[in-house]
Hints:
Elements: E1 26-28, E2 35-38, E3 41-42, E4 48-51, E5 57-61, E6 68-77, E7 80-88, H1 116-133, E8 142-144, E9 154-161, E10 167-172, E11 179-181, H2 190-193, H3 196-205, E12 212-219, E13 224-230, H4 235-248, E14 251-256, E15 262-265, E16 277-281, E17 307-311, H5 322-336, E18 343-347, H6 355-360, E19 364-369, H7 372-384, E20 389-393, H8 399-408, E21 414-417, H9 425-431, E22 438-443, H10 446-458, E23 461-469, E24 479-486
Parallel strand pairs: 5-7, 8-23, 13-14, 18-19, 18-21, 19-20, 21-22
Antiparallel strand pairs: 1-6, 2-6, 3-4, 4-5, 6-7, 9-10, 9-12, 10-11, 12-13, 14-15, 16-17, 22-24, 23-24
Helix pairs in contact: 1-10, 3-4, 8-9, 9-10
Amino acid sequence: MAMLGKRRPPRPASGHSGLVRKPNRKTESNDETSTTLVVERLAHDGRGVAHNTAGKTVFIDQALPGEHVDVAVHVTRKRYDEAHIKTRLTTSEQRVQPACVYFGQCGGCDLQHLNLAAQRQHKRDVVTELMARQGLTLGSIAALDGSSEHYRRRARLGVRVDGQGNVLLGFRAPNSHRLVDIEQCHVLVPALNALILPLRQLLATLASPRLVGHVELLATNEATVVLVRQLKAHDQDMARWQRFAEQQHVALGTWLGRETPVLHWNSAHSSGAPTLQEVVNLDELDIQRASLPNIEHRSSADEVSNLLTLRFSPGDFLQVNAEVNQKMVAQVIAWLKPSPGQQLLDLFAGIGNFSLPLAAAGAEVIAVEGSPAMVKQITANAEANQLDVHAQQADLSDAHTVKRLLSEHQQIDAVVLDPPRNGAEAVCQVLSSYNVSRVAYISCDPATLARDAAHLVHAGYRVKQVAVADMFLHTAHLETLMLFEYEG
């Protein structure tokens, strides 16, 4: 669910933070003997943590701090056990009734039993603890929270036909490949949630539903999009999908083929492929757009708009929570205070999520991505918005490449980092030799951020500001923003 396609390099699980459990030798246990434990705290992944009478750590699904619970161990490992609650003897004041009927079955929103304020405090505590492990002490942490529970503007739903011939549509169960059949999703934006029942009805009528691998849903400023992963063409079923698109007023695309699927647009609209774009209101970022730069396609009739449009394609990375993403961009703008004459380096730039707003304020931005296709997209977006952004391709995981890149741009005033889950270790190690005055780091894994922050601090940087963005409501995942300043 976290990615829409494949163009931006995938965010592999780091195994550092506890948000994704590392493979380990384990023994499945069928022993249902109850053990009474007291939950001490939450693990990084949101499970309760307790210790049995022998002192062994026990991770307990859906248990909250302070609760007395009778548990049964379902997995025994060398250093710890994994358990589930058989009987809850006391109940935490922080416990709430989950809003989703599939809570506990679906592997998505695993913190819905914890009230929202406690969820967000837990995420700030995780960041503080991981930084402390690296010897870093944080001051106050700002909160960048969204206002809506129905926040998710893209999702991937699996499709499977069971042994009885029933077609299932939904998300995976926790730590399993088993598909949980759903009729609604509490966190999807309304336009996408409204498609689930019609999709179920359509799938039940297909002649060959086994040819459908999954369905991706995307809500944009201009269109609602349904992308079908079709392993092999089936004319009758494709006609059914087309009628569905016309009835639901959605743009329909089909990824066709097994090994190297090709996208075919079957839009309900005569225009074919829909316009996929992110719209950024500079007024909401407190930016008064600077004068248009002298670029070749500018004409005297051009008007300065305070709306930026960032075009993208299926497969390009896009944050799932539009409101929180806007707040993150606003936070970076407030920290860096870009202005004409500044030169900024935006690494792991994506479609220009940070690059274009920074350039709109007047800064000269060098945007770097690993994918040549993404470099073309950034360039196109900059030209369409008449902004001074120079995009280039580089492997940012290679220290020699990063050194060459920084040597070419020694006049930069600040660096923006927005890496995938495995972080930006090579960049942070190399930065120590260049003394860039400010670094704004946006991270989706607080453990790799803590590792990279330690590199920067040991090189003479100081943590000046920290913010935690609740990008993924009701889950243990979070986005962390940190501002570093070089002090020597």
